Amino acid sequence: MPHKEDWPRNLLGAHVEPMNAQIDTTDPRRRETRTGVLKRAKIAFGRAVIDCVVLDVSSSGARVRTDVTATIPDRVILRFAGGGAYVAHVQWTQGTELGFAFDGLAPLAEDAASLALSAFNALPANDLDIPIRLLRSVRFFDDPVLAKATEAAEAAYAHFKTTLKERIRFQV
User: Fold this and answer.
1) pTM surpassing 0.70?
2) Is 62:79 a contact under the CB 8 Å cutoff?
């Protein structure tokens, strides 16, 4: 990662960390590499929702910034723009920045669950079986690269369908 002196500057002349940069992980408290992002999200608890911006994220947590200093309970749901949602607990706070550790997937929001169910119902019942059987009947997969790609596509489709079904079921 470039030194801070090499980062671009904003209009006020302050250094701005590059987007999607790997965050310095020399801090011994970090278990894994975090990726810098600027992504909208919402912190939800009870009936309250606080807008925030995700500054960096890893598979185990995120650092976010809110517009105001707010009292936030220990456990919340962090909902990313785009649908991802995690049950999370507060690791630390510093002014308007908060560090969250993910505890697991959160239930889908009602609109996302409805959309996921519609998408699931639109998936063909017989998966990729018919088109692949047709291609096999003309020995289309004699090419080992195509055969391997087909197997990967079938596995990915089955995994996608199973995961979508589990997430919808998790919501109910």
Assistant:
1) no
2) no
Contacts of 38 (CB under 8 A, 6+ apart): 19, 53, 54, 55
| Every domain of the chain and the residues it spans | 4-105, 110-171
Is the separation of the CB atoms in 26 and 55 below 8 Å?
no
Least Cα distance to 110 among 168, 50, 46, 45 occurs for 168
**Given this model, what pLDDT does residue 51 score?**
96
The answer to whether the CB of 25 falls within 8 A of the CB of 36 is: no
Q: How far apart are CA 158 and CA 151, in angstroms?
A: 11
Q: Is the dihedral of CA 27, 33, 37, 39 positive or negative?
A: negative
Architecture, CATH, for domain 4-105: Beta Barrel (2.40)
